[in-house]
C-alpha cells in the first residue's frame, strides 16, 4: 500500500504547529477548570506537532512515497477558501460564508457534486453556529441581518 504523505509533509505540518504554538505564547492558558483564551490554540498546536512528527516518522520508517507532482491546485483552493472566509464572515454571516468557502474548495475537488457541497455547508454551518454562537457565546450572525 502506498503512503498518502511524505516525510517532509509531516515535518511541514509539525512546523505549522510550532508556528501557531509560538504565536499563542502570550495568551493566558488558565487552568483546566477555568480555561483561558490560550488553552485551545496551545493544545491544538501541540496535537498538530505530534501528528506531523508521527506522519514524518512513519514515512521515514516505511520509505514509501507516491509518485507525482505537488498539488498546487488544491493548495491554492484551500488558501483562497480561507481568505474568502476571513473576508466575508462579518458581511454574510456563517451560513453564506461557509457555502462560499466550501464552493471554492469544491471547484478543486474533481468528484464533488453540487448537492454534496450544499449539504456539507449546511452541516458545517450548523456545527459552527452551535459551537461558537450557542456554546461559546460569540457574536456571529448566521445570515446577514440575523
TrEMBL record:
A Pfam family reported for this protein in Swiss-Prot or TrEMBL: TctB
Q: Which UniProt keywords apply?
A: Membrane, Transmembrane, Transmembrane helix
Q: Which InterPro entries match?
A: DUF1468
Q: Establish whether keyword Membrane is in the entry.
A: yes
Q: Where is the DUF1468 domain?
A: 11-140
Q: Which domain of life is it from?
A: Bacteria
What sections of the protein cross the membrane? 35-58, 70-88, 94-110, 117-140
Q: Does the keyword Membrane apply?
A: yes
What's this protein's name?
Tripartite tricarboxylate transporter TctB family protein
Species in which this protein is naturally found = Roseibium aggregatum
Amino acid at each position: 500500500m502506498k503512503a498518502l504523505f511524505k516525510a517532509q509533509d509531516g515535518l511541514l505540518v509539525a512546523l505549522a504547529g510550532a508556528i501557531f504554538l509560538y504565536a499563542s505564547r502570550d495568551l493566558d492558558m488558565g487552568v483546566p477548570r477555568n480555561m483561558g483564551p490560550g488553552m485551545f490554540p496551545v493544545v491544538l498546536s501541540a496535537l498538530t506537532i505530534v501528528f506531523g512528527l508521527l506522519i514524518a516518522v512513519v514515512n521515514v520508517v516505511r520509505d514509501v512515497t507516491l509518485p507525482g507532482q505537488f498539488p498546487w491546485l488544491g493548495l491554492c483552493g484551500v488558501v483562497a477558501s480561507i481568505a474568502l472566509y476571513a473576508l466575508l464572515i462579518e458581511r454574510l454571516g456563517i451560513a453564506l460564508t461557509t457555502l462560499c468557502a466550501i464552493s471554492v474548495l469544491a471547484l478543486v475537488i474533481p468528484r464533488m457534486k453540487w448537492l454534496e457541497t450544499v449539504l456539507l455547508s449546511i452541516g458545517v454551518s450548523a456545527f459552527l453556529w452551535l459551537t461558537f454562537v450557542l456554546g461559546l457565546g460569540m457574536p456571529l450572525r448566521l445570515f446577514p441581518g440575523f
